[in-house]
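Subject: design request, 158 residues
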C-alpha cells in the first residue's frame, strides 16, 4: 500500500464534508476523484496533502501515519497536490515550470534526468515560454509527463 485514507472525516461547522472515508491507492495506480460541486473532492485532496487536518481518521503513506505532518513535510515525502487554476511562471519555459514543481524537497538530480528523458525530441517544451502557450495549455504543464523522482512506490496519478 502506498497511500491510504482510514476513517477520514472533516466538518466545516455543522456541514459534514468527509464522512468516514476509506481508500487505498497502490503503487502505480492512477486514480480520479469525481463528484458534483460541494461533494468534498478538494477537501479530500487538502487533507491528503496536509493543507487541512482531518477531524477524525488517518492519512497513511508507505505504511506510516503522516496525519500529524504538515504539507511541507508531506511534499518532501512525495505527497503533493496541484490547484485548479494554473499559475505558471510566465517568464520561464514550460520545461522550467515543470522542473520547479518536480524538484520540491531537493530531488533535483533525479528529476532533471527524468525531465530530460521526457523532453527529448520535444524542443517546444524546452524553448516555449509558459506565457506563449495557447489558451488552455497552462493547465497541462507537464500533464503528459509522469515523474516519480526515484521514490519507491509513488502514488501514480495522485
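Subject: RE: design request

Done. Sequence follows.
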Amino acid at each position: 500500500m502506498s497511500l491510504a485514507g482510514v476513517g477520514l472525516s472533516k466538518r466545516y461547522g455543522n456541514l459534514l464534508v468527509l464522512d468516514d472515508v476509506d481508500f487505498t491507492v497502490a503503487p502505480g495506480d492512477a486514480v480520479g476523484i469525481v463528484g458534483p460541486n460541494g461533494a468534498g473532492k478538494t477537501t479530500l485532496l487538502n487533507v491528503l496533502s496536509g493543507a487541512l487536518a482531518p477531524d477524525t481518521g488517518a492519512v497513511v503513506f508507505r505504511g506510516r501515519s503522516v496525519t500529524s505532518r504538515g504539507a511541507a513535510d508531506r511534499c518532501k515525502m512525495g505527497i503533493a497536490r496541484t490547484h485548479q487554476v494554473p499559475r505558471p511562471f510566465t517568464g520561464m519555459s514550460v520545461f522550467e515550470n515543470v522542473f520547479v514543481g518536480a524538484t520540491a524537497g531537493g530531488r533535483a538530480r533525479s528529476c532533471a534526468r527524468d525531465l530530460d528523458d521526457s523532453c527529448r525530441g520535444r524542443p517546444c517544451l524546452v524553448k516555449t515560454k509558459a506565457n506563449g502557450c495557447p489558451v488552455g495549455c497552462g493547465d497541462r504543464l507537464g500533464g503528459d509527463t509522469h515523474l516519480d523522482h526515484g521514490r519507491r512506490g509513488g502514488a501514480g496519478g495522485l
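The chain has a mean pLDDT of 76.
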